[in-house]
Write a structure and sequence with these properties.
CATH class of the largest domain: Alpha Beta
Strand order of the largest sheet: 2-1-3-10-4
CATH architecture of the largest domain: 3-Layer(aba) Sandwich
Structural class: alpha/beta
Number of helices: 11
Number of domains: 2
CATH topology of the largest domain: D-Maltodextrin-Binding Protein, domain 2
Order of helices and strands: HEHEHEHEEHEHHEHEHEEHH
Largest sheet: 5 strands, mixed
Distance between the termini: 78 Å
CATH superfamily of the largest domain: Periplasmic binding protein-like II
Shape: globular
């Protein structure tokens, strides 16, 4: 049998290891919490977001963990308690709805973009008139993001209706879950043309194709908001301030945003 002295030694050692383990575990979680913010980003804004977040991480040491999807889908996730600190939407409506529901702080405008028509088929670049091109006999499929969940898809649909070609295009439209998928359809040949955010058209892959500006298209004003359940408010505020710097504005301009 173990002696009293041996028993006490084992007990003290076990308690020391247990307490040390709890302290060490807590310290790791605390450090990780201070160094990471979680941002829900609309698909159209992922490219400039990657560049801005990369610069921010280098300057501050704070990691920016990004989750991308259509604005409507991200909104639903947030309403259902998804653990985000910041929401960068592709519209004004969803952040304002979250504000009305008491789930976020007052929304702010961080960018304004435009929808364009893009094609991977450079042989279609013979005319600058987008209506003439899209109504051509050689166009069989046109990709568009779901107007119900993707603001740039909604802007594209408004443009189609304003131009009076909704009925003519109805059978040609191929719907993507978000603007990124619409671009992918055009890039891979699943669609002859695609309505995309200008940021996609200005990307490395986008520049290989042909882009048509849409005079009828409304600007897409994008708002963001800090979520009430964020435990990293100071770090989030620091990142929001960084979005307003000249360095970030230069990146926004390069991707076609105002």
């Amino acid at each position: 049998m173990m002696s009293t002295l041996g028993y006490n030694y084992v007990l003290r050692s076990a308690i020391f290891l247990l307490v040390s383990g709890v302290f060490f575990s807590g310290a790791v979680r605390g450090a990780a919490g201070q160094e990471e913010i979680r941002v829900a980003v609309a698909t159209n804004f992922m490219r400039p977001m990657d560049a801005i977040a990369g610069d921010f991480e280098k300057q501050t040491g704070t990691r920016v963990k990004r989750s991308s999807s259509a604005t409507g889908m991200l909104y639903s996730q947030i309403v259902n308690s998804a653990p985000f600190d910041l929401f960068l939407a592709a519209d004004e409506k969803r952040p304002e709805l979250l504000y009305q529901q008491g789930l976020c702080e007052e929304p702010f405008v961080y960018a304004s973009g435009r929808v364009v028509l893009w094609s991977n088929r450079v042989d279609l670049g013979g005319t600058e008139n987008w209506l003439q091109v899209i109504l051509g006999d050689e166009i069989l499929r046109v990709a568009i993001a779901n107007p119900e969940t993707a603001p740039y898809g909604e802007a594209a649909m408004q443009t189609i209706k304003k131009a009076g070609i909704e009925q003519k295009l109805q059978k040609l439209l191929v719907y993507g879950q978000n603007i990124g998928q619409a671009f992918q359809y055009g890039q891979q040949g699943a669609a002859d043309m695609a309505f995309v955010a200008q940021s996609f058209a200005l990307s490395e892959q986008g520049r290989k194709g042909k882009t048509w500006l849409l005079p009828e298209a409304p600007p897409v004003v994008q708002k963001g908001c800090i979520l009430k359940n964020s435990a990293q408010r100071e770090a989030v505020l620091e990142f929001v301030a960084y979005l307003q710097t000249e360095q970030s504005k230069t990146i926004l301009s390069a991707f076609g945003y105002e």
